[in-house]
Amino acid sequence: MLDVIRIGTRGSLLATTQAGAIRDALNARGHHAELVIVKTAGDQSQEPIADIGVGVFTAALREAIDADEVDMAVHSYKDLPTAQGERFVIGAVPPRGG
Questions:
Q1: pLDDT tens string 38-89
Q2: What is the DSSP letter of 87?
Q3: Is 79 a catalytic residue?
Q4: Which among 19, 31, 36 has a CA at the least distance from the CA of 94?
Q5: CA dist 61 to 40, 54, 56, 70, 96, Å?
Q6: Taking the model in full, what pTM does it have?
Q7: What is the DSSP letter of 98?
Q8: Consecutive H or E run containing 1
């Protein structure tokens, strides 16, 4: 059993707000969860997304899961690559905020 659920997220305000809502929901249900900020190639580049490629924000999150740095990741559903990797699944899609 995990002592703490480490949630990988980008460091932007939107990303930490979304991931924070998941963290708060887990904590409210008795699961200790915390955010782990993951730097991505997309965050480090000043180039337009179209120039740096698909998956620039999610690749680092997947690598963090692979490296056991985080247990899960929260990312905007609309920005996920359309082709799912063999090893990763979308575990949940929370309701949209109003």
A1: 987 666 656 665 555 556 678 889 899 999 999 999 988 777 766 666 788 8
A2: S
A3: yes
A4: 19
A5: 8, 14, 10, 8, 22
A6: 0.82
A7: -
A8: none
Counting every residue written for the chain, the total comes to 98
Active-site residue identified among 24, 68, 71, 79:
79
Question: How many angstroms separate the CA atoms of 51 and 48, rounded?
Answer: 5
Both structure tokens of 87: 């090893």
Q: Three-state secondary structure along 5-73?
A: EEEEECCCHHHHHHHHHHHHHHHHCCCCEEEEECCCHHHHCCCCHHHHCCCCCHHHHHHHHHCCCCCEE
